[in-house]
Amino acid sequence: MTKIPSRLIKDYGIIGLAYIAILLVLRPVFLGEYNLTASLLVVTVVHTPLLLLVFFIGEMGVTYVLRKPFSYSDTLETRFKHFVLCGAICIPVMMVLLTQANAILIHGLGHAERAWLDQNGLLTLKWLMPCCSSCVVAALIMTVAMTALSEVRQMRYVLEDLKAINKMLEESQENSLSPPYQDTLHEEVTLQGNSRNPLRLAPHDILYIESTANYLNIVYFNDSELCQTRFRSPLKDVESALADYPFLVHIHRAFLVNINFITQVTGNAAGYKVELLGSDKVLPVSKSNIAAFKEKLYAAEQPHTRPEASSSRLRGKIE
User: Fold this and answer.
1) Rounded Cα gap, residues 174 and 185, in angstroms
2) Looking at residue 271, what is its pLDDT?
3) 305-315: pLDDT as tens digits
4) Which residues contact 257 (CB under 8 A, 6 or more apart)?
5) Are 271 and 284 in contact (CB under 8 A)?
6) Strand partners, 257
7) Cα(102)–Cα(108) distance, rounded to whole angstroms?
8) Would you say 278 and 317 are in contact if contact means Cβ atoms under 8 Å apart?
9) How is the chain split into domains, by residue range?
10) Closest by alpha carbon to 99, among 117, 85, 119?
11) What is the pLDDT of residue 146?
12) Is 118 helix (H, G, I), strand (E, B) or coil?
């Protein structure tokens, strides 16, 4: 079901209050051509809830009418476009509500209709124009501020996520845990590809597979020795042949990695990077693969995780 994140509503509140505070500090409050001396009371009682209501209406329009729900995990460009669209909806709504609020404050609740009538009592929209520039500025400030705040939120979420992942990896490395796939620990597969010489090896020994043009670089352990072989085959064919081994995860269009050998995960909102035990190679995790990567990683790190045989080979390698 499409819904507005509660965190986003709070962020709108933060930006709205900050905007009102800036108005109070930088200049007195003007409504139309009238300078109100009780500016603090007017802003607090009228403008603040009005501005927050406008932001919420804009977000409702984007989320429900246009079916574009906001997500902090979206790219910076996607989030910016979301807030631009929200601001475009906010401007006419803000102009209408602010014009009506001005008429009520100036003429009283009993003459609220004066916001839409000229001196001859005919329908007019000319009273909207004095509010246009201030509404455009408010929408612009909202767009920029919300984009910046969402970027800060995303960076914070990424750091917390990476911290949790690395803590889990550290705890796993410190504990002696039984191998998860006992029945496949010494099992071997044959990779045929487009080569006349098929490659036969144990999937548990594979460190990572890198796709380069029509070839694959397969890096694997032979006892304690780190080996590499060049193999002619599309990555998708090898991935299909290794589909029964869930510890081999597609993290990037060019990389398949054995998550049992991951020692640390770094990166930022644009994508993660994994470091491998026994190798200086740092592999990228593309943004589109982060969710699936984490799901496999957390599943593998449950009690009964890393293969003892792999750990012993790597221990010999690094020592």
Assistant:
1) 21
2) 83
3) 444 434 434 33
4) 207, 208, 209, 248, 249, 251, 274, 276, 283
5) yes
6) 208, 249
7) 9
8) yes
9) 6-155, 175-318
10) 117
11) 92
12) coil
To which residue do tokens 């009228």 refer? 46
Bridge-based pairing of strands 282-286 and 255-258 is: unpaired
Half-sphere CA count of 217, side-chain side, radius 13 A: 11
Q: Please tell me the predicted confidence (pLDDT) of residue 125.
A: 81
Length of the chain: 319
Residues of the chain with pLDDT under 50: 1, 29-34, 36, 178-182, 303-319
Q: What is the Cα 70 distance to its own chain's centre?
A: 10
Structure tokens at 44: 């607090």
The Cα diameter of the chain in Å comes to 95
- Indicate the fold that domain 175-318 takes in CATH: OB fold (Dihydrolipoamide Acetyltransferase, E2P) (2.40.50)
CA–CA gap between residue 226 and residue 208 (Å, rounded): 11
Best CA proximity match to 56, nearest among 84, 80, 86: 86
